[in-house]
Design brief:
single chain, alpha+beta, three-stranded antiparallel sheet, 1 helix, 3 strands, about 15% helix, globular
């Protein structure tokens, strides 16, 4: 897999077969779990692309729930602990 170029201080990681990015400066805080996810690897149908965490945009709630569970698996915590930025 060829990874896209990233901004300095941000690096790519693959977890649960999902491409995500992490911010190097945040690594100094071991209790801060963070990730920037791409829109690749999800379950949503058009017009929501394939990966959507938005619960208030009209996407299929089951598709959103399924991808939230997958994201939570990246860090082993409950999906209800996710706070997606919209």
């Amino acid at each position: 897999m060829t990874l896209p170029a990233v901004t300095e201080g941000v690096y790519p990681v693959t977890d649960q077969n999902l491409l995500l990015y992490r911010i190097a400066a945040f690594d100094a805080y071991p209790y801060l779990r963070h990730a920037i996810f791409t829109r690749q690897g999800g379950y949503s149908q058009a017009p929501f692309a394939s990966l959507n965490l938005g619960i208030s945009v009209g996407d299929d709630p089951e598709a959103v729930k399924k991808i939230m569970s997958r994201f939570a698996g990246c860090w082993i915590f409950r999906p209800t602990r996710l706070f997606p930025a919209t």
